[in-house]
Amino acid sequence: PPPPRAQSGVGISSMGVMNPGLVMRNIIPVVMAGVLGIYGLIVAVIIQGSIEAPQNGYSVYSLYTGFAHLAAGLCCGLSGMAAGMAIGIVGDAGVRAVGQQEKLFVGMILILIFAEALGLYGLIVALILSQNSYSCEY
């Protein structure tokens, strides 16, 4: 399947042929899919900032800390992927439906917000996981 931004973009393009006045209003799914990428960037910067270089030839970055950072990245990435798929599918079908019946706009936005919340939960857990560390003593 195509990435969520592309999938929502295809729906917007398809809907724009029928009702061009709604194109800018229905750009929300594309923006929401982009926010998921920002979540990953936040986690990456936090993890990168807590990686320590070896001192005196000995590593102070423990296996425990490495796996905690791996778990944080996977948590944010996999929950972002699930949220992105949901946003892409709902965005595609939702903007096409709104193009035909504008009363569906609020319902589409609510579903998109709940899908985005999946990625936000992953970000929160990733931030908690990334704070776990153990410094090696030598």
TrEMBL record:
<keyword id="KW-0926">Vacuole</keyword>
<keyword id="KW-0812">Transmembrane</keyword>
<feature type="domain" description="V-ATPase proteolipid subunit C-like">
    <location>
        <begin position="7"/>
        <end position="47"/>
    </location>
</feature>
<keyword id="KW-0375">Hydrogen ion transport</keyword>
<feature type="transmembrane region" description="Helical">
    <location>
        <begin position="104"/>
        <end position="129"/>
    </location>
</feature>
<feature type="transmembrane region" description="Helical">
    <location>
        <begin position="67"/>
        <end position="92"/>
    </location>
</feature>
<keyword id="KW-1133">Transmembrane helix</keyword>
<comment type="similarity">
    <text>Belongs to the V-ATPase proteolipid subunit family.</text>
</comment>
<keyword id="KW-0813">Transport</keyword>
<dbReference type="Pfam" id="PF00137">
    <property type="entry name" value="ATP-synt_C"/>
</dbReference>
<feature type="domain" description="V-ATPase proteolipid subunit C-like">
    <location>
        <begin position="70"/>
        <end position="129"/>
    </location>
</feature>
<keyword id="KW-0406">Ion transport</keyword>
<dbReference type="InterPro" id="IPR000245">
    <property type="entry name" value="ATPase_proteolipid_csu"/>
</dbReference>
<dbReference type="InterPro" id="IPR035921">
    <property type="entry name" value="F/V-ATP_Csub_sf"/>
</dbReference>
<dbReference type="InterPro" id="IPR002379">
    <property type="entry name" value="ATPase_proteolipid_c-like_dom"/>
</dbReference>
<feature type="transmembrane region" description="Helical">
    <location>
        <begin position="27"/>
        <end position="47"/>
    </location>
</feature>
<protein>
    <recommendedName>
        <fullName>V-type proton ATPase proteolipid subunit</fullName>
    </recommendedName>
</protein>
<dbReference type="InterPro" id="IPR011555">
    <property type="entry name" value="ATPase_proteolipid_su_C_euk"/>
</dbReference>
<keyword id="KW-0472">Membrane</keyword>
